Structure of ORC1-type DNA replication protein:
Amino acid sequence: MGGNDTTSNDRDEGDAEDSAPSADIGIDIDDLSLDDLDGGSSDSADPTSAADPSDSTQTTDTDESATADPAMSDTSQENGTPQEDDTPQGGLFDDLLSGDPIFENKDVLRPSYTPDQLPHRQDQINDMATILVGALRGETPSNILIYGKTGTGKTASAKFVSNELETTSQKYDVPCEVEYINCEVTDTQYRVLAQLANTFIEANERHIESRLASLRALKERADTGQTSLDDIEPDTNEDAEIDPDATSSDVVPSVGDRSDTASSTNSTDTTIDTDEADFDSIAAVEERIAELEADLDAFEPVPMTGWPTDRVYSTFFDAVDYHERVVVIMLDEIDKLVEKSGDDTLYNLSRMNSELDNSRVSIMGISNDLKFTEFLDPRVKSSLGEEEIVFPPYDATQLRDILAARADIAFEPDSLSEDVIPLCAAFAAQEHGDARRALDLLRTAGELAERGQTERVGEDHVRQAQEKIEIDRVVEVVRTLPTQSKVVLFAVILLERNGAQNINTGEVYNIYRRLCDEIDADVLTQRRVTDLISELDMLGIVNAVVVSKGRYGRTKEMNLSVPIDETEAVLTSDSRLGDIEDVQPFVQARFDS
Ligand SMILES: Nc1ncnc2c1ncn2[C@@H]1O[C@H](COP(=O)(O)OP(=O)(O)OP(=O)(O)O)[C@@H](O)[C@H]1O
């Protein structure tokens, strides 16, 4: 499922890496930073010298990689510059490429990969299929709400089922479409309806174009006197048939000509599918072509902004109802939509069926917030929750199975030591049984082993990966904090840096006020700052406990619960906090006050 990823920053990188030339050899060049190169191989990289081949101060590296670029080593020899171990030459990547690759296909460990098999989700998949099969019979399936914590396979399973549904609908020629919307990205009624309207307009345009193509072909044959309908593709759609009883002089084919087609369209003897719209003349075909062309011209895509919502809704409504079909609208992260813009969208979607003439709409909502339905209008709640499917967290054994299946495709044979999968599974099971986290761990452990140029991934790599992912998570959370929270956190860091422990709210507030003065920010009240500290506590950035100070009342005491260096680096990368030059004097405030 789309967003809500607190486990890794890499979540959406999959596509970008498809084109990486390294895919075959298992080295992910996009992922390499210069820090990664530091110490990761025999030479530590100096980007400036590596980037500038004309630099005459460059030295010759005696290891194999240096000889990869004869031009560069020649220059260095001429200069007679002494060898310096830490200055790389050409062949920057040769060392990295030299070892045996660990990954066979790293992409299968990425969130963007959709597996063919979803172990331990058969029950949920069967439940969904049992509900949605109605769509293939032309009935309206019940709406479904899917719940479960993050990484429990909700999106993967729902997408798997919808792919199957669409494939089967094509096989049996039953019009059924599934539209997927990630409500974390598309989070307002306007955007949801506009995206749906535009998708259906495009689908309608394709549908009309194909009708027009067959009608024009039919007309051309009739115009040129080719009367054999054998050439005309048997088509059960309304436009492909011509009335067998046609009498007009410009009737296209004769009855005798179309017996084959007739038999292929469920008709007995010479009658052709008279349930469908028929044409008794070329003029009728032309008229239908003109109608379709007019429909095509009338479609107006919804702009990204600017229309009244009513108009967007009616455009979507008309587009869906343009022809007969069952539509399943999959709203992933549906709670985000409700949180951001209330339940109007769901209300409108859930009452559509009573007004649609040709099509039927069914909603599949996916959420990892079990409580979001509490905020729904009771009518919406009961309509949306006609069927509910729960995705429980995976336990360590189930995660092992999932990882083992992926690892088979992702890694070269014998690249994983035997502890690796159980350890990844155990770490992820502790984190509420999150398969995404387990896969991230396995991939990161593999990358660390690869960068360390070891032949096998070991337990240590998994532990380092766990730490790295945790730091990535912290960095992401801290980076997206509002400025005021960042200032509060910065105050805590400054106090810790100066040896303070069990820091109390008053101390934080004093430093906070001075930092605000320094950066020209509004100073909030101490009560508000206490609230911000509670939020930092909830995010797991500080650990705050309330302690009683006897007759002085109660206060909060806190310590930082994230790595101080990385957190400080993220804070000072914020342009406002980065402007604070000398932090030392502020810390004195603790002792002055
Ligand atoms: N049973 C399974 N077998 C194989 N892979 C799985 C399974 N369950 C989940 N995954 C993988 O785990 C990752 C997360 O799964 P998915 O996005 O479906 O979770 P989710 O429940 O929708 O999470 P979120 O609520 O955070 O979006 C995906 O890469 C998915 O392929």
Observations:
- The longest strand covers residues 359-367.
- The chain has five domains: 14-108, 122-175+324-391, 204-297, 396-476, 481-592.
